[in-house]
Write a structure and sequence with these properties.
Elements: E1 2-4, H1 14-21, H2 29-47, E2 54-60, E3 67-68, E4 74-83, E5 89-91, E6 97-101, E7 107-111, E8 119-126, H3 137-152, H4 163-169
Antiparallel strand pairs: 1-2, 2-8, 3-7, 4-5, 4-8, 6-7
């Protein structure tokens, strides 16, 4: 199970979207912010990576085999706890587990001692950039274009996202094969 911190950081700026749409007033700001968040979520799903670094906690099997963390790219693994069936957590000493972040940004963790049926709760951080300015321009521009398209298509159920958005995002797409 993966729980994540919703920091509320936008992956593209309101100013960028308003400039793109040629909107000068503030009446639509709440709608535009929601569209930016929605477009960023779709971007993350499409590219298979978190955009802005945020905290996560994930529960994985406490077996000796390596367990891959769900979010990527992982930038830091901050702590590991053992969790029993009653949900009681115990901070593990460093020699009770092993962690790794590979070159592709995949995070891995495993128990190095028998866990007695307990799970591992892993606290970590994942994301491509610390803020929107660190994101590749193509990702940001695709988010702005998609949010603008959704704004323009309000009330129309036949609206389809522009092909340019997937073209901008495709080079950053990372997929896992089963």
């Amino acid at each position: 199970m993966l729980a994540q911190d919703e920091s509320g950081a936008l992956a593209a700026s309101m100013a960028e979207l308003k400039a793109y749409l040629r909107i000068e007033r503030d009446e639509e700001d709440a709608v535009l912010a929601g569209l930016l968040r929605g477009a960023a979520t779709l971007c993350e799903q499409f590219v298979g990576q978190w955009l802005i670094v945020r905290a996560a906690q994930e529960t994985v099997a406490g077996a000796g085999a390596w367990q891959r963390l769900a979010a990527r790219p992982v930038v830091a693994i901050d702590g590991v706890e053992a969790v029993d069936a009653a949900g009681v957590a115990e901070l593990l000493p460093v020699d009770a587990y092993a962690v790794d972040i590979d070159a592709a940004g995949e995070g891995w963790v495993r128990a190095t001692r028998p866990m007695g049926g307990r799970l591992l709760a892993v606290d970590y951080r994942a994301g491509l950039a610390s803020d929107m300015n660190g994101l590749p321009e193509a990702l940001r521009h695709g988010i702005v274009r998609l949010a603008a398209e959704h704004f323009a298509a309000r009330g129309s159920e036949s609206a389809a996202p522009p092909a340019i958005v997937s073209a901008l995002w495709r080079p950053f797409r990372r997929m896992r094969l089963a």
